[in-house]
Amino acid sequence: MLLQLNHIYKWVKQGGKRVFLLNDISLQVKEGEFISIMGPSGSGKSTLLNVIGMLDEFQEGEYDFLDESVHTLKEKHRSKLYKEYIGFVFQAYHLIDELTVYENIETPLLYKNIKSAERKALVADMLDRFNIVGKKDLFPAQLSGGQQQLVGIARALIAKPKLILADEPTGNLNSKQGEEIMRLFKELNQEGVTIIQATHSESNAEYGNRIINLLDGSKVKA
Amino acid sequence: MLRNYIKIAWRNILRYKTNSVLNILGLAIGLVSVMLIALYIQNELSYDTQFDQAERIYRVNMKGKMGDNSFYAGYTPPPAGDALVDQFPEIESATRIYQPDNTKLAYEDAANPKVFNESEILAVDPNFLEVLSYPLQKGDPTTCLQEPNSIVITPQIAQKYFGDINPLGKTLAYGDGKKSLQVTGVFEDLTQYPASVKFDALMPVANFNDVTYFNWSWVWLNMATYVKLTPQASTHPASLTRLQSRFPEMLKVQAAPAFERIGQPFEEFLEKGNYWKLYLQPLSDIHLYSQGITSSITEQHDVKSLYILGIIALFIVILACVNFMNLSTVQSVKRSKEIGIRKVLGSQRKQLIKQFMTEVLCYTFFATILAFIMILLILPVFNGLTGKDLHIQAFFDGNLILLIVGIIVFTILLAGIYPAFFLTSFNPIRALKGKAAKTTKSSFIRNGLVVFQFFIAITLIICTLVVFSQLQYTQQKDLGFGKDRVLVINNAESLGSSALSFKKELIALAGVDEASSSSGMLTRGEFGDFYTPKPTADEPNITTDISLSSYLVDDAFIETLGLEVKVGRGFDKRFKDSLSVILNETAAAQIGWKNPIGKQIRYPGGNMEYYTVVGVLKDFNLESLHTPIQPFALFAEESQSYDTRTSFISLKISGEHTERLINQVQDLWKSYSENTPFEYSFLDEDLAYAYQEDQRLASLFTVFTILAIFVACLGLFGLIAFTAQQRTKEIGVRKVLGASISSIVKLLAINFLKLVVLALILSVPVAWFAMDNWLQDFAYRIDIPIWAFLAAGALALAIALLTVSFQAIKVAIANPVKSLRTD
Ligand SMILES: Nc1ncnc2c1ncn2[C@@H]1O[C@H](COP(=O)(O)OP(=O)(O)OP(=O)(O)O)[C@@H](O)[C@H]1O
Ligand SMILES: [Mg+2]
């Protein structure tokens, strides 16, 4: 078992009333799964991914990640945990504009205190793998959307995470670019990386081996 | 990691150019101000500390009270030094300084003889250089002043008289008597030597008969005495106090005969509530902590001005830091996305804080380099302003470099910590959405910082205005005499008996209205001694001893100086005035005479003769408005009441063709006194010189105030630029909906103007308090003018408005379509 959510509730107060963003979510994810979260806009997909990625708090429920109970961990410990095991891919890529492709990919390694020589080797491998060696000295603004997302994925993978959380990774891409990214995910999944993606697209969801449907913060049967 | 941080910092500096320029420039100006002020203060603090065993050296000061007059003086009677060494084993040695009036030196051996008036020649005891170790380049400090006919000179004097010839053994002629003095030593270059006693040449005090003559006197206060204590006595404050507590006993014994001789038995003198005391002042205190202690031998500044400058420097640095904080936090919207990503990628807050501190470090690094370049350019100007000779090298020796490093670290912490903690506090999800900075808390802090900056700027403006109006006032106040169009010729004593015909010839010149000779002159010091007014039947209850300063003058003096005779008459050829005296109102009032005319005062310091009061003068200031009016008298020249050996000739001139007139006077002078250089000055300029220190402080004040305002404006400029940019879209929409440019400028400006007004309200009481305090130093002072506050407020508003408008108009006139398209 990679992670397990038990009766997670997340709400915000609005005008004195609770508005539930996540409503009694329970979920078990085994290592090597490829899960697609689907649902209409505003249904809570991003919120759920953020909770799983430990970027966001929740009010009630339990969350175990690799046998650690996340809900009881201190911020510092939590960040160590996700730094070690989780990679993020965003719809808007979220590359650092001031850094080159090479430096963007390298950044997570810096935060893991990996030696310079090893960093070089790892980044070089990654550039190689995604065929972007020629682009390594360019800045994000000089890349196409698809290329930026490739860099985003390379960056998510560089620290060899067990889990990749992808929030509409193809949302800003045309269908051909989107397909390429999904095939890449499939490949990664076959190599053993667990993937959870949020998506609107049925066809993208098909790449996964399990689909979770959300509506107003609750899981619904498909 | 560090390399990565620096790389990002560098790219950010390049990317946000306006912001970077504002930050770096602001910090650099802050640093320049601190560095300049630190140099200045260091120089002031270093006075008299470089002498060997300086901590064992003290000046013997005198405090006395005679009737209603009390004083502190850096002078002692001539025998005090020897008596102290004699009586107290704790006092190892004593040395004295006497400031002769005559400063004329001549080199007569050369083919073309050279004669100059030097600005400062001091007479000292033979052991002077053993106590105060001024460094010699040539000569032996222990022997070079042993022979009375020796003189030790500065390299500048050597160059002036002897050129490149070795001056040792050469002969200089001193004074009007052309006394031959042999050069026995040459000092190192002393122009930068921070000592409170400055001179061009030293010669033994044995050359001066008046000193020898007054060797018995315990009331003739014309010599400065310095003593060196044993290490034991000087290191224990308690033993120092004990030592000084034994001085009164000694004085009682030593001074008694002298007081007896001037008709003032010492015991009786003390019983009347008077006192006459010696005390020790540490050498290192003389330059800065001698307010109210009279001395024309030492250069005495007010330590208060150092505090003021220090505070201003601190303010400017804080202003620059505040700019930095402001500009960084407003940038947080732009930076929040990066911060969010980094957090998601696993950065801990600590690491982000480090990253931001590295950025601050980079800014500070560039600012420091810029500051040093600016200092190199500015230092000559600053030296002109302060009358000092400061060098940038001074940073690298001593503690100054530590101080500067300390200030830089302080800057980094102050400027960096708030933004670093603020920017990294966001939740990554919110940060990624770019929503981080729009919290009310941060805008509250930002507004607070703007108010703070303007508070400081406005306070400084008000203070500067008040300082200037006080100076204006002191220089324009009716001093009780006509200071304009009075030409004063020095060295008239060299004319001897021909002075009379010289005056006659001067009067005959076109453009000369009056000509007068006198033993003293306003701003140049006066003769002072004790007199005993004589009670009469009609006014029996008067003060029977008074100290009077006085001049010996001819009958034209009152006319020439434009003094006003209140009662009685001035000196007049038709009367025999050799036993007449003219008092000022203060003197008459202090004695207690209602009808002074015809009353008499006796002069115990002379031949016990009586002088009859023939007139009373309206009070006038002898020195500057720093000093209150003292009892003063005029005696007639022919009284020869005392011998001062100085003489001035003053001319009241019409003020037309002054240049030509001066040439004529000079020619005439040459025909009378071939060997004495012609030296003249205008009385109003001499008076201005008395305010030089104030003037200097005022200019320093102004310079740094302008810098402070500039830095504050940089910050405001950055803030408004940012706000305008942030609201580009809103402004675009408003314009499309038909808003006018002026309404948009108003929209952007109104908020900032409110802040400036708030700052103004806060600064009024603070500036009031500070200036009220400062003005207490002046004997004659202005009321704090209301207009200074109004002007400062108007100025600050105008500056703010200008800064704001520039940005606001730029945004307002931009094409709305374009601004809508940009994100
Ligand atoms: N901080 C917040 N305060 C209040 N409501 C919030 C907050 N964050 C998210 N929401 C609400 O929570 C709901 C779920 O948002 P979420 O971003 O998870 O939806 P989503 O399923 O990812 O939608 P989309 O497909 O459009 O990305 C939305 O209705 C949103 O308005
Ligand atoms: Mg979403």
From TrEMBL, chain A:
GO terms for molecular function: ATP binding; ATP hydrolysis activity; transmembrane transporter activity. It comes from the Bacteria. Coiled coil: none annotated. It holds the Pfam family ABC_tran. Keywords: ATP-binding, Lipoprotein, Nucleotide-binding, Translocase, Transport. InterPro entries: AAA+_ATPase, ABC_transporter-like_ATP-bd, ABC_transporter-like_CS, MacB-like_ATP-bd, P-loop_NTPase. Residues 3-222 form the ABC transporter domain. GO terms for cellular component: membrane protein complex. SMART domains: AAA. PANTHER family: CELL DIVISION ATP-BINDING PROTEIN FTSE, LIPOPROTEIN-RELEASING SYSTEM ATP-BINDING PROTEIN LOLD. Belongs to the ABC transporter superfamily. Macrolide exporter (TC 3.A.1.122) family. This is ABC-type lipoprotein export system ATPase subunit. It comes from Leeuwenhoekiella marinoflava.
From TrEMBL, chain B:
It is found in: Cell membrane. Pfam families: FtsX, MacB_PCD. One of its GO terms (cellular component) is plasma membrane. InterPro entries: ABC3_permease_C (IPR003838), MacB_PCD (IPR025857), Macrolide_Exporter_MacB (IPR050250). Residues 20-235, 456-666 form the MacB-like periplasmic core domain. The keyword Membrane applies. This is Putative ABC transport system permease protein. It comes from Leeuwenhoekiella marinoflava.
